């Protein structure tokens, strides 16, 4: 049994992770900015310091954590209102992450699991699933900030003896999902025609409970120290296959129009949404063989089970 501190514990992934840790018999403290939202059994620690400023000084005397899982981040948004998005991402995702690492080391924590993003590596797979040793080519401020945070944390960990574990998930889905995945379910549930029928490129996904299970392995397994892992369900789908599966679980029709990818690219160019279209029609598969080999991890849920659970949540709440 470990004592684990989870930043962003009342967020989408944080709630799933805290639940998995508690179920495994671990003691869990959630570091949050606003009270509430953590699973029952989680000890809440509220700290409002901007980008974790003053975290070391505010650390509760009774908290003797073995591991910190750092989930809190400035997340990717399609249309960022910030005047300098990269500076804002760096302030939270790089400088904030380093402050968490510094506080953890000062308080005797032995390991920090940093939840990065596949966007720290690339937006596309260049013809083969992305491995952990691929050359990083982040394309946007969010991905760049996550890549820089990885580098800073590894350097800090090497210098001061803090075990750093990096986890890079692709798109995460599950109950309470937001953004594009939620919009897709809404469109499907309304029976709207979608121009997705001709998209053949596959993309990796990870069900939130599969990601939480992988993170528990990263917290507890000695051999995870110093490693980087890509985590996904292992059942990559085309966008059309994803839409059809979701529609089936939503008990809604899948009205997918076979619009050629070249037409979608043209529409993206004309509307200033080329990046969004590229993400929709491009291939982004990840290789998960390292975490399976090093940690013996297997996703406990299939993609179909994850999509079914997500659809049940949507039908119950919308």
Automatic annotation (TrEMBL):
Region annotation Disordered: where it falls in the sequence: 125-146
Domain (NAD-dependent epimerase/dehydratase) ranges: 4-229
InterPro entries: Epimerase_deHydtase (IPR001509), Lipid_A_modif_metabolic_enz (IPR050177), NAD(P)-bd_dom_sf (IPR036291)
Highest taxon listed in the record's lineage: Bacteria
Compositionally biased spans, kind Basic and acidic residues: 125-134
Entry protein name: UDP-glucose 4-epimerase
């Amino acid at each position: 049994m470990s004592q684990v501190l989870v930043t962003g514990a009342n967020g989408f992934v944080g709630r799933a992770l805290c639940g998995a840790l508690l179920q495994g018999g671990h003691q869990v403290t959630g570091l949050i900015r606003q009270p509430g939202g953590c699973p029952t059994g989680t000890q809440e620690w509220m700290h409002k310091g901007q980008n974790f400023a003053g975290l070391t000084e505010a650390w509760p005397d009774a908290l003797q954590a073995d591991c910190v899982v750092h989930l809190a981040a400035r997340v990717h948004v399609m249309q960022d209102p910030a005047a300098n998005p990269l500076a804002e991402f760096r302030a939270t995702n790089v400088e904030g992450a380093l402050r968490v690492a510094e506080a953890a080391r000062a308080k005797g924590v032995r390991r920090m699991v940093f939840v990065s993003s596949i966007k720290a590596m690339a937006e596309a797979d260049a013809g083969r699933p992305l491995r952990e040793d691929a050359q990083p080519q982040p394309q946007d401020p969010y991905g760049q900030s996550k890549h820089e945070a990885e580098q800073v944390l590894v350097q800090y960990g090497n210098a001061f003896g803090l075990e750093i574990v990096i986890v890079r998930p692709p798109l995460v889905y599950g109950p309470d999902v937001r953004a594009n995945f939620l919009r897709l379910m809404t469109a499907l549930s309304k029976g709207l025609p979608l121009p997705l029928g001709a998209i053949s490129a596959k993309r990796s996904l990870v069900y939130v409970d599969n990601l939480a299970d992988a993170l528990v392995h990263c917290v507890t397994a000695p051999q995870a120290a110093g490693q980087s892992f890509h985590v996904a369900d292992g059942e990559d789908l085309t966008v059309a296959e994803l839409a059809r599966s979701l529609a089936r679980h939503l008990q809604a029709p899948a009205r997918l129009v076979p619009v050629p990818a070249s037409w979608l690219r043209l529409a993206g160019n004309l509307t200033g949404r080329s990046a969004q279209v590229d993400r929709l029609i491009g291939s982004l598969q990840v290789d998960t063989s390292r975490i399976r080999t090093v940690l013996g991890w297997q996703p406990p849920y299939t993609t179909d089970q994850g999509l079914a659970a997500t659809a049940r949540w949507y039908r119950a709440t919308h």
